[in-house]
Here is the input.
Amino acid sequence: MDVRFPTDPRAARQAQEQLRSRVCLSPLPGWPELVAGLDCAFREKGRQIVGAAVVMDRRTRRTVAEKTLWLETPFPYVPGLLSFREGPVLYELVQALRPQPELLMFDGQGIAHPARLGIAAHLGVLLDIPSVGVAKSRLYGVAEEPGTAAGSWTSLHGREGELGVLLRTRERVRAVYVSPGHRCSIDDARRLVLDWSLGWRLPHPLHLADRLSRRDRTASAGVSGKMSQQIP
DNA sequence: GCGACAG
DNA sequence: ATCTTGTCGC
Ligand SMILES: [Mg+2]
Here is the structure.
């Protein structure tokens, strides 16, 4: 399939308007057995980007696949257009993943976005895989501060309605912004993230993808386009 | 016009 | 995101 990511802000915003109608918030088809965490890191003053994917099994809680991919950074960081910067490398990465995950977790917003198309919603639609966005800070929408207990949450909403939740994944950590990406409801997104929150502020697959991307940034003498994979 | 502003 | 050591608090 010929998926194109615009290289300029103008075209990017037009693409968002074109894609937003394809986002679906139906409940998850089933509780996902294989969940992937996706994140990125940079080097060379941001000129190169590395995407990292960690696939985990819900039953064993073990990592079943890891993969990284380097590319030339295609887009600058512009609030609201993050998916055009980190999306291209993560899109390629997910397509090359084996086994294919049943759900994708992104380090960023899902529909809690001015165009309802944060990176989780955008990539979820392009790949047609259920997805969830988990952001460490707010981009769009408002929410009250949740209680201090792990699992406490409050509703995140915009003028158009409910967008997600502000969730306290653990005690004594700052709450995270959870919103569905594609083919997932707000309730399922919250339950999914909490179910994978054990030990860290971010759900395990995302925590590991974050570590993997930064590790590769230093360790790899990676040439752009190089892909690596290990199966622990 | 003035702030806000995922990573 | 990245630049970067020690330091404050438990
Ligand atoms: Mg990140």
Notes: Residues 39-40, 42, 77-80, 82-83, 85-86, 106-109, 112-113, 118-119, 133, 135-140, 177 of chain A lie near DNA strand B (CB under 10 Å from a C1'). Helices of chain A lie at 9-19, 83-96, 119-127, 186-195, 204-219.
